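Handout, page 2. Input:
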Amino acid sequence: MPHADSRSETAPAGRAASPLGSALAGEAGSRRTTITFYLTEALRNRARAAYRSTSFTEKDSSWSEMLNKALLAEVERREREHNDGATFEGGDEPLAPGRPIGF
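Output:
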């Protein structure tokens, strides 16, 4: 389950904005925060291998940037699929704690 902590930071001075940062302009794109979530070791290792093999070609400035791109792609897909392409209403309210929803 995703969990945002309270630590936030701004991008280091003198660092060029990434394409991802410009994609989030107008949102809280200039501030960064950390999240913790769980995934299998197999998926983590697969993602690391993909990053190592393609980061130069894809122009990822970091592992975090690749993960941000992946998350942004899923968020945009859900907005298209479930909200006519518009962003969902909401904000920085914490997610409900507890066990994952069973389907």
